[in-house]
Design goal:
- It is a single chain.
- By secondary structure, this protein is mainly beta.
- Helix content is 9%, strand content 64%.
- It is built from 1 helix and 10 strands.
- Strand 2 (12-25) and strand 3 (28-39) form a beta hairpin.
- The longest helix has 17 residues, at 119-135.
- The radius of gyration is 21 Å and the shape is globular.
- The relative contact order is 0.11.
Length: 193
């Protein structure tokens, strides 16, 4: 069980996810990620992501690649982010450093994102637009967004100490046409050996 990011009230969710990485060649990693979450308010989220990363400099561990994502939520909610059909396409540059007791990664993603509007929101907007044309007022922007630029920056750090303990920090910030998203997280892990 986990909590859904919401600033209004605590909402729990049950999540199933699957992450697969295939090293197609020494310099090419293909990855797929899927997550299904069932929320405590009977809503559900599906997130799918695929990427291909080519190692362009093995000595510096620099990789370039492409990433595609789609996210959808069954019902709209005012309590949390609930896109009808959001798509993102990115070009990715990632730098990784690994040492015997630590690991660090930094990445930058530059691309495009769009969010399709729910059919009921489009119908409501079309009705307002038709009325606006009759009365001479502007109905506002069409719901959803077209392909617009987006930027995401992220990084993570892991460090092992006392042979069985690991501490990690993760952070990211993403910038879209209508909003920005900031995330920070940490983990402490004890490995049984």
């Amino acid at each position: 069980r986990e909590l859904v990011p919401s600033g209004r009230r605590p909402i729990e969710s049950d999540t199933f996810s699957l992450h697969s990485v295939w090293k197609a060649r020494d310099d090419l990693d293909l990855a797929a990620y899927g997550r299904f979450s069932y929320y405590g308010d009977t809503n559900s989220l599906l997130h799918l992501q695929g990427s291909a990363l080519w190692t362009v400099d093995p000595r510096q561990t620099v990789a370039l690649g492409l990433q595609a994502e789609v996210t959808t939520v069954d019902d709209p909610s005012a309590d949390y982010w609930s896109p009808y059909w959001e798509q993102r396409l990115y070009g990715v540059i990632r730098m990784t450093r690994a040492f015997p007791d630590s690991y660090a990664r930094a990445e930058c993603k530059l691309g495009w994102a769009r969010e399709e509007a729910r059919p009921e929101d489009l119908e409501r907007w079309r009705a307002i637009q038709a009325r606006g044309e009759e009365l001479g007022f502007y109905a506002g922007r069409k719901p959803g967004t077209d392909w617009e630029p987006s930027l995401a920056l992220g990084g993570s750090f892991r460090r092992t100490f006392a042979r069985q303990w690991e501490i990690g920090l993760d952070g990211s910030c993403s910038f879209y046409a209508d909003y920005s998203d900031y995330r920070i997280g940490g983990v402490v892990t004890f490995h049984f050996r």
